[in-house]
Amino acid sequence: MVCRCEGRAGQPACRVHSHSEFSRLNEAQQALENACKLVPDYPAALYLLGEIERDEHHLRQSTDTLQKVVALELADSNAQYLLGRNLENQGRTPEAIRHWRLALETDPNNAKALYSLAQVLSKSQDPDDLEAQKALAILHTLQSRPASAN
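User: That's the sequence. What structure does it adopt?
Assistant: Structure tokens below.
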């Protein structure tokens, strides 16, 4: 985090801003947890809660929350992708691959899922693995594209 009160890029965040950001994130997490208690099957609130849990480095908790989301809405491409990322970070690569494939079935243009799947499959040691070859070609295409200016 960069401190905005001095306006100098690269400086660590001051204590006021660090506390403020943490406080807002904590408040958001508490509000989402309360919403999920009131309406436990509301995928949008669960997804946001899963994102916050991931950002707070609570991968197991985030994974559990995102599994609830995809159980409720199998076609949620973003939840499938994020769940895949969590699973990959937990060393559960085959499960991650399955969720990225589900994300791409729902939304073939989900670039994050496509990139993650391509990265993992391109590491295949089997030279006859056609899916890995295709993934490697996709990965090279994605890496050769100029970065978008957002």
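The domain at 20-144 is CATH 1.25.40.10 (Serine Threonine Protein Phosphatase 5, Tetratricopeptide repeat).
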